[in-house]
Amino acid sequence: MASVLAIGLRIVFIVLGCVNTATVIYTIATDGHPFRKELLTPWMEATLIDFYINILAIGAWIVYKESNWISAIIWIVLLICLGSITTCGYIVLQFLKLSPQESLQDPIYFVLLSKTKKFGTESKRKLSVASTRVIFSVLGCLMLGTLIYTIASDGSPFRKDVLTPWLSATLVDFYINVVALSVWVAYKESNWMSAVFWIILLICFGSITTCAYIVVQLFHLSSEDHVFLVLFSSRSRSENGYEGTLPRDNFTLD
Question: Any stretches that span the bilayer, and where are they (predicted)?
Answer without folding.
Answer: 6-28, 40-63, 69-93, 134-152, 164-187, 196-219
